[in-house]
């Protein structure tokens, strides 16, 4: 997919940087929340191309969306449809996800293009993620990535979650199946439907089964529904385990009751094969019984950045002592794996322009690889020597896939 290089018009939050998420359920009229947080799209601008999955409310499709200003160019999109004949309640529940998603704007959170509510079928249009959900993606690519590539993905997930927790949004269903992956291996948080489910079904996991994703949920959230960003951090630890084990099912075929009992007794998942000790330690930190002892998402981002800065820290693994980790270093040679804009600038000794890149909203390797001298000048980077150095390094960016 061709993503336009966005320079200059950073989407400035209307309400300052500390904008809080508004729960659409606080609106008496759910349609009002939709009008406020989601752009209405004319169905004529949408072409459905293929069905790619089944959602709770109807098919999920891949398609194209014609975009402003002249509606000639089009982009790939994912289209969630509401089954024809659904009840008014189902329609509201379906659109709630869009009212939530529409409030977020972050490179690691699925972006809502808009909704179709004035014609049938009702649709939610989001950016298209070529590699689908993270759990399946890892299973079909078992063992194929370098540790630094996995760290780049994990860093993206932590960064998206850090943004959501800063907005006071608690996800409650963070799991690899709810993270989507695009063609550049960028991971984005998706699936904003669960918060409502749990509120309405207080006895969810005991009587109805499966409403609380037990294997991913912190003990205090299971025991007394204490869902917080700290319980999301517990779930992040499980996602970290899923990523490092390439999509293994947490606690394998254990029953939910066995998982709950074992966790209560202090059992924790073992380190996945070849998992660097530092990453396993991070999982254990996320699984601290006391939620106040767990790291925050922003400290997880810093920890991952630090690990990426010193790859030798990734050489120690717990369960393969004979392995000196040389394959990790070997794999890194000649690669320019993009973890974050700041780290990249640091590597090329151009950190002084960190703020310039932030202001221009340059967050992906793809955006940076397309920079020109004119862009840099527009951003206020005018020294020709520095421009040359940045552009030379930008051309070498290996966008992984
Ligand atoms: P969901 O109802 O959100 O769980 O979506 C069902 C399935 O559709 C997911 O497991 C993905 O494989 C796929 N899917 C959902 N959203 C997208 C998207 N934005 N891009 C690509 N695939 C998607």
Automatic annotation (TrEMBL):
Q: Could you tell me what this protein is called? A: receptor protein-tyrosine kinase
Question: Any idea where the Protein kinase domain is?
Answer: 46-315
Source superkingdom: Eukaryota
- Any one Gene Ontology molecular-function term assigned to this protein's record: ATP binding
Q: Does the keyword Cell cycle apply?
A: no
A Gene Ontology BP annotation from the UniProt entry: axon guidance
List where this protein forms a coiled coil: none
According to its UniProt record, the EC number is 2.7.10.1
Question: Which UniProt key words apply to this protein?
Answer: ATP-binding, Cell membrane, Glycoprotein, Kinase, Membrane, Nucleotide-binding, Phosphoprotein, Receptor, Signal, Transferase, Tyrosine-protein kinase
Give start-end of the signal peptide. Answer: none
Q: Where does ATP bind?
A: 80
InterPro entries assigned: Eph_TM, Ephrin_rcpt_TKs, Kinase-like_dom_sf, Prot_kinase_dom, Protein_kinase_ATP_BS, SAM, SAM/pointed_sf, Ser-Thr/Tyr_kinase_cat_dom
Q: Which residues form the SAM domain?
A: 344-400
Q: How does the UniProt record describe the way this protein sits in the membrane? A: Single-pass type I membrane protein
Q: Does the keyword NAD apply?
A: no
- Gene Ontology CC annotations of this record: dendrite; plasma membrane
From the Swiss-Prot or TrEMBL record, state where the protein is found.
Answer: Cell membrane
Main localization, broad class: membrane
């Amino acid at each position: 997919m061709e993503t336009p290089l966005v320079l200059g018009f950073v989407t400035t939050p209307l309400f300052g940087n500390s904008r809080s998420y508004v729960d659409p359920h606080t609106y008496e009229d759910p349609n009002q929340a939709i009008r406020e947080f989601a752009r209405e799209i004319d169905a004529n601008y949408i072409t459905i191309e293929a069905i790619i999955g089944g959602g709770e409310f109807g098919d999920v499709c891949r398609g194209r969306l014609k975009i402003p200003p002249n509606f000639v160019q089009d982009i790939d999109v994912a289209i969630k449809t509401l089954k024809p004949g659904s009840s008014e309640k189902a329609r509201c529940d379906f659109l709630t996800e869009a009212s939530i998603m529409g409030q977020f704007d972050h490179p690691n959170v699925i972006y809502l293009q808009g909704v179709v509510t004035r014609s049938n079928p009702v649709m939610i249009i989001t950016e298209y993620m070529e590699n689908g959900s993270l759990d399946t993606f890892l299973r079909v690519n078992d063992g194929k990535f370098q540790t630094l590539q996995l760290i780049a993905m994990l860093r993206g997930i932590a960064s998206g979650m850090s943004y959501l927790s800063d907005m006071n949004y608690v996800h409650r269903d963070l799991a690899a199946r709810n993270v989507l992956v695009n063609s550049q291996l960028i991971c984005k948080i998706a699936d904003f439907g669960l918060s409502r489910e749990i509120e309405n079904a207080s006895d969810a996991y005991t009587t109805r089964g499966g409403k609380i994703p037990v294997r991913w949920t912190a003990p205090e959230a299971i025991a007394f529904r204490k869902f917080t960003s700290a319980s999301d951090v517990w779930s992040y630890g499980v996602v970290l385990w899923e990523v490092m084990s390439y999509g293994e099912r947490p606690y394998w075929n254990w029953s939910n009751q066995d998982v709950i009992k074992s966790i209560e007794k202090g059992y924790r998942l073992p380190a996945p094969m070849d998992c660097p000790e530092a990453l396993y330690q991070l999982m254990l930190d996320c699984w601290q019984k006391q939620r106040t002892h767990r790291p925050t998402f922003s400290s997880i981002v810093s920890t991952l950045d630090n690990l990426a800065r010193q790859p030798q820290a990734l050489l120690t693994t717990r369960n393969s002592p004979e392995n000196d980790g040389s394959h990790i270093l070997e794999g890194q040679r000649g690669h320019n794996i993009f973890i974050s804009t700041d780290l990249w600038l640091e590597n090329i000794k151009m950190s002084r322009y960190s703020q310039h890149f932030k202001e221009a909203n340059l967050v992906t390797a793809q955006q940076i690889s397309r920079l020109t001298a004119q862009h840099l000048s527009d951003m206020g980077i005018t020294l020709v020597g520095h421009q040359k150095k940045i552009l030379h390094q930008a051309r070498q960016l290996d966008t992984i896939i």
